C-alpha cells in the first residue's frame, strides 16, 4: 500500500467516529438548549406546586370567595332596604294619595273643596247655627254647654237658664248649685257650671259685661277654646272662621281634604283651601251633613247626595234603601224642615233663604241621594 492509499484508509476509518462525535455534540447542544429553556417552565410548575404558591393561590381564592360572600351578603341588604322603603311607602299611600292613586296637589284639593262646598250649599241651603240664641252672650253660653251633648239638648235647657241669668253679671253672681241644677241635662254639669261662672265673671270684670269680638280675647275666657270662639265670632260677629268640631274633622278627613287630626291644624289646612267668605257657612253645611247623613259609625253612603264627590264612598251602607233608614233629622224632625232661625242682630249673617218650599218638596239631600243610589 502506498502512502496515499494508507492515508485514505485512515481517513475512512476516522469518519464514523467524527459523525458519532458530531451527533453527540448536537445532542448536547439540544440538551443545553432545553436546559436553558426549562427554568421558566419548571419554576412555574414548581411555584404552582410549592407551599408558598399554594398559599398565594389559596389567598387569591379566599379573597374571591370573600368578595363573593360580601356581594352575596350585600344583595339581601339592598333588597331589605327596598322592601322597607316599599313598606313605608305603602303605609303612607292611603292617607296621602287621592282616589286616582297620585299625590294630590293643594290646588286640586282646593278645587274639590269648592265643589263639595257648592254641593253642600245646594243640599243644606238652610244650614245655620243650630243652637238657639238671642245675643252673643247666649251663643257663648250655649256653645260651652254643647260640649259632649246635642244642640237639641242644649236648646231644651237654655230657655230656663237664660230666663234665670240673662246677663253675664247675673250669671257671675249665680248660686253654683242652682246653676248646676239648671244645666244638669247637658252632662258634665259641674265643670260646665264652673266655666260659666268663670267666663261670666271675666266678661263682667274685664269686658264691661260684653262678649269680646276677637279670637285672642275669647280664648282667654274660662272654658272657651278655638272651636267655641269661632262659633261666636262667625255667628254673633260675622267674622269668618271654621268650626272644627267632631263632625267637621271627621268629614274633611273622609273627603281627603286633610289628614290632620289636630283641630288647629285641620282649621289651618281647610282655611287654606277655601275663600275666607266661605269658612263659616262651609262649617255649618259640613256639620249639618255629619249630623244627618255622614255619621261616625254608619255613614249613609247609599243615600248621600254628595257621594259622587266623596273619595270615601262605601265606608258606610251603600244600599239606598238601607241607607235611608240611617238618615237623621236631629233638629227638625221632618226631612227638609226649615228650622226657626235665631233672632238676628248686627253683624250676624242672615240665614240663606230657601230656593224651594221645604213643606211640600223633599229636601235636596233626599232627591239627590236617590239619584246617587240609582247610579250606583
Ligand atoms: S259618600 Fe259616605 S262617606 Fe262620603 S260623604 Fe257621603 S255618607 Fe260620608
Automatic annotation (TrEMBL):
DNA repair enzyme that has both DNA N-glycosylase activity and AP-lyase activity. The DNA N-glycosylase activity releases various damaged pyrimidines from DNA by cleaving the N-glycosidic bond, leaving an AP (apurinic/apyrimidinic) site. The AP-lyase activity cleaves the phosphodiester bond 3' to the AP site by a beta-elimination, leaving a 3'-terminal unsaturated sugar and a product with a terminal 5'-phosphate. PANTHER family: A/G-SPECIFIC ADENINE GLYCOSYLASE/ENDONUCLEASE III, ENDONUCLEASE III. It catalyses: 2'-deoxyribonucleotide-(2'-deoxyribose 5'-phosphate)-2'-deoxyribonucleotide-DNA = a 3'-end 2'-deoxyribonucleotide-(2,3-dehydro-2,3-deoxyribose 5'-phosphate)-DNA + a 5'-end 5'-phospho-2'-deoxyribonucleoside-DNA + H(+). It is an enzyme of class 4 (lyase). CDD domains: ENDO3c. Residues 145-292 form the HhH-GPD domain. [4Fe-4S] cluster binds at residues 294, 301, 304, 310. Keywords: 4Fe-4S, DNA damage, DNA repair, DNA-binding, Endonuclease, Glycosidase, Hydrolase, Iron, Iron-sulfur, Lyase, Metal-binding, Nuclease. Its cofactor is [4Fe-4S] cluster. It comes from the Bacteria. Gene3D superfamilies: Helix-hairpin-Helix base-excision DNA repair enzymes (C-terminal), Hypothetical protein, domain 2. Binds 1 [4Fe-4S] cluster. Its EC number is 4.2.99.18. Belongs to the Nth/MutY family. Residues 1-111, 324-376 are annotated as: Disordered. GO terms for molecular function: endonuclease activity. The keyword Metal-binding applies. SUPFAM superfamilies: DNA-glycosylase. This is Endonuclease III. It comes from Streptomyces spirodelae. Residues 60-77 have a biased composition (Basic residues). Residues 23-59, 78-102, 364-376 have a biased composition (Low complexity). InterPro entries: DNA_glycosylase (IPR011257), Endonuclease-III-like_CS2 (IPR004036), Endonuclease3_FeS-loop_motif (IPR003651), Endouclease-III_FeS-bd_BS (IPR004035), HhH-GPD_domain (IPR003265), HhH_base_excis_C (IPR023170), HhH_motif (IPR000445), Nth (IPR005759).
